[in-house]
Specification:
- Helices cover about 45% and strands about 15% of the residues.
- The protein starts with about 25 loop residues before the first strand and ends in a 9-residue tail after the last helix.
- It is of the alpha/beta class.
- It is globular, with a radius of gyration of 18 Å.
- Helix 1 links the parallel strand 2 and strand 3.
- It has a six-stranded mixed beta sheet, sandwiched between helices. A four-stranded mixed beta sheet has the order 4-6-8-9.
- The longest helix is centred in the last third of the chain and has 34 residues.
Length: about 260
């Protein structure tokens, strides 16, 4: 996938040693649309603590910039996001805050998938207002296969997904394609519609877009108010369990977990 925009050395954050490091989230602007690109392909754009923090900062900047009418969230490499980084995961509250930030951003957020999306990556897509996917993209909620459940990401997914489809893919962890994602409400439209949708957003007034988004996200935000704390606690207890330790170890060691029949 081609990157949108170029980054200079001056734009690169510095490590404690003073050496520049590559950003995990690229930024570019084009006629009122800011594009934020998850750019950690070596670990399939896994949601590490640094990536989540950098994405949150980029979204804050977009929210404050009067020149930004809408935000596109996309990726480098063949994976939008593989879900939580098991080696350097964000805290559950940090991830909840990120999901809520996307939902509450006073500007439309368009998720773009051209490849794979897994687990927590689907939660991030669920927070977006519009999701576009290429014909050969695929998705999976794989949490049950490592001994946990899609707890925190239910905040953005369950209010949007068709219930029977949610039950199937939550419980089986099986992979599904763009056609199924469209039918269940995870994906809005094919990637081919990208320019038409962005042109439509460019025609909206800032106030109109802000208030229209407020209407369509109200039920999702209600879910945050009612259930966020409970789901954070559930997630923490599951990840601390013996089954999850076995599941994550098996995943990292590329072997079957002990419960696999």
């Amino acid at each position: 996938m081609s990157r949108e925009g170029q980054r200079t050395n001056a734009e690169k954050p510095r490590t404690n040693a003073g050496e520049p490091r590559t950003r995990l989230v690229g930024t570019a602007h084009d006629r009122g649309v800011a594009t934020l690109t998850l750019d950690s392909p070596a670990n399939r754009n896994a949601l590490s603590a640094p990536l989540v923090a950098e994405l949150a900062d980029a979204l804050t900047a977009c929210g404050k910039d009067p020149a930004v009418r809408a935000v596109v969230l996309t990726h480098t490499g063949g994976t939008f996001s593989a879900g939580a980084d098991l080696k350097a995961p964000p805290g559950p509250y940090a991830f909840v805050d990120l999901l809520r930030q996307v939902v509450e951003l006073p500007k439309p957020v368009v998720g773009v998938v051209d490849g794979h999306a897994r687990a927590g990556g689907l939660g991030l897509l669920g927070a977006c207002d519009v999701v576009l996917a290429s014909e050969d993209s695929d998705f999976a909620l794989t949490e049950v296969r490592i001994g946990v459940a899609p707890a925190v990401i239910s905040l953005t997914l369950l209010p949007r997904l068709e219930p029977r489809a949610a039950a199937r893919y939550y419980l089986t962890g099986e992979r599904f394609g763009t056609a199924e994602a469209l039918a269940m409400g995870l994906v809005t439209a094919p990637l081919a519609d990208r320019e038409r949708i962005l042109d439509g957003l460019r025609q909206g007034s800032p106030q109109g877009l802000r208030e229209a988004k407020r209407l369509v996200t109200a039920k999702v935000l209600d879910t945050f108010e009612r259930e966020a704390e409970e789901l954070v606690q559930l997630s923490a207890s599951l990840f601390a369990s013996a089954e999850a330790r076995e599941g994550m170890t098996a995943f990292l060691e590329r072997r079957d977990p002990m419960w696999r029949l």
